[in-house]
Amino acid sequence: MNFANKISTFRIISVPFFVACLVYYGQSPDSREYLRYAALGIFILGVLSDAVDGYIARKARQQSKAGLILDPLGDKLLLMSAFICLYLVPLPIRFPLPVILIVISRDILILLGAVVIFIVRQEINILPTRWGKLTTTFQMASVILVLMQWRYSYVFWWAAVFFTAISGTDYVMRGFKSLYSNNVDNNRNYR
After folding, report:
1. Which of these, 5, 143, 142, 129, lies nearest to 66 by C-alpha position?
2. How far apart are CA 43 and CA 61, in angstroms?
3. CA 20 to 30 Å from 164, out of 11, 141, 142, 155?
4. How many structural domains are present in the chain?
5. Residues 116, 182: contact at Cβ < 8 Å?
6. Average pLDDT of 6-12?
7. What is the rounded (10 degree) CA torsion for 134, 135, 140, 145?
């Protein structure tokens, strides 16, 4: 396992600690304010590790098949758990249900599409797009701002919703194009 994959694995392992901080904070928020800050620290560490593992993988040429799975898995686990927890935990500023549904629906759609493409093509090559990177950036910023209880967090979470919808549509179109191009190639091979 290369160093970039170890960083991605660290991000995956940090998710239960992040969730635990928010769950215990939610049980008595007034006396456990430090747990919200601990969750914020863990999340920021996860965000930084995402940037570092990507940089190392590109610069040191440590890109691998495991990294193609571990990196997005770490991102999705961290972000989905953050959005769900920051909807359920009783904070004055928290994500509304429509935001949670849109963010999670996109990720489920991408996951199901990837499974279908893998079943049909026996391989998968999901590369992040500019829309996907913008989505991840705004989602991460939204989580940080909600954890900080910044009063204008909603500006970022609605921007995240906007980019989530665009990137979800883009990934679905790319998925259909990938499936269709595969079927066209198969039809040519059978003639």
Report:
1. 5
2. 26
3. 11
4. 1
5. no
6. 88
7. 90
CB atoms < 10 A from the CB of 90, how many? 9
> Residues for the chain: how many in total?
191
Q: What's the pTM?
A: 0.87
Let me know: does 78 contact 49? Beta carbons within 8 Å.
no
Of the pLDDT bands very low, low, confident and very high (cuts 50, 70, 90), residue 47 is: very high
Query: Nearest 5 degrees, angle CA 59-CA 61-CA 67?
Result: 110
Q: Could you list the residue range(s) of the whole structural domain that residue 65 is in? A: 3-190
Helices (H), 60-152: 65-88, 97-121, 130-147
- CATH of residue 93: 1.20.120
- Give the C-alpha separation, 186 to 137, whole Å: 38
DSSP 42: H
Kindly tell me the burial class for residue 139, based on how many C-beta atoms sit within 10 Å of its own C-beta (0-12, 13-18, 19 or more): buried
By the 8 A CB rule, do 37 and 51 touch? no
Q: Which of 20-24, 49-53, 121-125, 187-191 has the lowest mean pLDDT?
A: 187-191
Give the integer Cα–Cα distance in Å for 81 and 149: 18
